[in-house]
Write a structure and sequence with these properties.
Keywords: Hydrolase
Shape: globular
Protein name: Metallo-dependent hydrolase
Number of strands: 16
Strand order of the largest sheet: 3-2-1-4
CATH superfamily of the largest domain: Metal-dependent hydrolases
Radius of gyration: 23 Å
CATH architecture of the largest domain: Alpha-Beta Barrel
Number of domains: 2
Strand content: 15-25%
Length: 469
């Protein structure tokens, strides 16, 4: 037994279920996996405590341990200009800002390392323990991205962009074959970064990344599909994101982009597609059949998609869904903000459903029984933790023996002063007692109001990667 932790654990083993494990003893082996989890008063826990050569780490009252967040969609080079030009339609915004910023990063390795180091630090500060990253087209710049994430110690799935058409003349790969040669070289170099380490210490992984259908020829997509199948590689892209993008694909390919991806073998259980706001029910059924997961990015959808993502319908269909910040289409690197936006958008959709049902009843007097469309904070917390981990094929996001210990310590009551922390500091009296008890109400308050001030520690694979004084 390498490490023992005693305190309150909070996790979401299934959609809509929040479990608060009061006064539990958790053991972590020397490889960073959970190998013991029981109530601290149990006979087994008491025996383990008595036989242990060292006292456990105590998580004090008013603090709890939560799985780390997963960010399933983030454009690393766009961290450089987040919060810019969001008044434009997607395709115009890409040409005006995104491609230029990515080209600038590719041209300046020192700038790339500076931006990516700060991005990695921000992710750690915000509790993101696993992130799926879009990079740029230049191989070397993506190696810098992988190195920066590795230095911070979080799990990073790094995608070198593949795009051979419909971009700036100076920011596009020469041909499909050149793009494939480049991505093969990147995969080899990325794997070499940690190839000498035992499997449990390998936190960086390359991902095939066709940017989206408009920038990829059929030849390139077909070769990427074969490469994924032959080498069991993950895939990420954008699908059915925005009205102008969807229309572009229809005119360019004379089909929906889900059909383009499927045709080339890019809808797989190893695939995560971002956005998917324009998928209908038969398309969701196909996504489930293929095993593909979706990265829901509610903030950027509000700016660029013209339609909100039908989250409730996707979940009810059985689609694997996690959350993404979509820097810089979204301007906030915090998955906590993304959780809140997911709830807000779903509540607005539910309001629209209620009003539409009311209009139908007043029209002909018949009863309308459409299903509710909203999600609550418990479901959003699941999407940010276990849901995202499942989409990535990880065993994390939940506390159970055999899972890697990827966790964050949240402090809502300061242990010495007994005062609420950070944005919760207005609470006192009876409200303080509610927080000390760590009830569902207290967790919901943190969900709605908490920020980086409440996060004081983070572990990845049992190793501390963030520790505040």
């Amino acid at each position: 037994m390498a490490t023992l932790i005693r305190g309150t654990l909070v996790h979401t083993p299934s959609l809509g279920e929040v479990k608060i494990l009061q006064d539990y003893l958790l053991g972590i082996d020397d490889k960073g996996f959970i190998n013991f989890l029981e109530n601290a008063s149990s006979d087994a826990a008491q025996t383990l405590l008595s036989e242990s050569g060292a006292p456990p780490t105590i998580i004090p009252p008013g603090s709890f341990i939560l799985p780390t967040f997963c960010d399933l969609h983030l454009h690393a080079p766009q961290f450089l200009y987040q919060g810019t030009g969001l008044h434009l339609p997607l395709m115009e915004w890409l040409n005006e800002y995104a491609f230029k910023a990515e080209e600038k990063i590719d041209a300046d390795p020192l700038l790339a390392r500076k931006v990516y180091t700060r991005l990695a630090d921000r992710l750690s500060e915000n509790g993101t323990g696993a992130v799926l990253l879009f990079g740029t087209i230049k191989e070397e710049t993506n190696i810098i991205l992988a190195e920066c994430m590795r230095q911070t110690g979080i799990r990073a799935f790094v995608g070198k962009l593949s795009m051979d058409q419909c971009s700036r003349p100076t920011y596009v790969e020469a041909s499909a074959s050149a793009a494939i040669d480049s991505v093969k070289s990147f995969i080899l170099r990325c794997n070499t970064l940690e190839g000498h380490l035992p499997l449990h210490q390998r936190l960086i992984e390359p991902v095939l990344t066709p940017r989206f259908v408009p920038t990829c020829s059929d030849e390139l997509l077909s070769q990427l599909g074969r490469l994924s199948t032959e080498n069991n590689l993950r895939i990420q892209s954008h699908m059915a994101e925005a009205h102008d993008q969807v229309e572009w694909v229809r005119q360019q390919r004379n089909m929906e982009d889900i059909d383009v991806f499927d045709k080339h073998g890019l809808l797989t259980p190893r695939t995560i597609q971002a956005h998917c706001t324009f998928l209908d029910q038969p398309m969701f059924n196909r996504v489930v059949t293929r095993g593909t997961a979706i990265a829901h990015c509610p903030l950027s959808n509000a700016y660029f998609s013209a339609e909100p993502f039908p989250l409730r319908e996707a979940l009810d269909t059985g689609v694997r869904v996690g959350l993404g910040t979509d820097i810089a289409g979204g301007y906030d690197v915090s998955i906590m903000s993304t959780m809140r936006h997911a709830v807000t958008v779903s509540r607005m959709r539910e309001g629209g459903r209620i009003m539409a049902d009311s209009r139908e009843r007043s029209k002909d007097g018949r009863e309308v029984t459409n299903k509710p469309l909203s999600v609550d904070w418990k479901e959003a917390l699941y999407l940010a933790t276990r849901g995202g981990a499942e989409a990535l094929g990880l065993q994390s996001g939940v506390f159970r023996p055999g899972a890697p210990f990827d966790a964050q310590q949240i402090n809502i009551i300061e242990n010495t002063t007994k005062l609420a922390v950070g944005p919760l500091d207005f609470l006192d009296g009876e409200n303080i007692r509610i927080l000390q008890e760590l009830s569902p109400e207290a967790i919901e308050k943190w969900f709605c109001l908490g920020d980086v001030r409440n996060r004081i520690k983070m572990w990845i694979q049992g190793k501390v990667v963030l520790l505040k004084p």
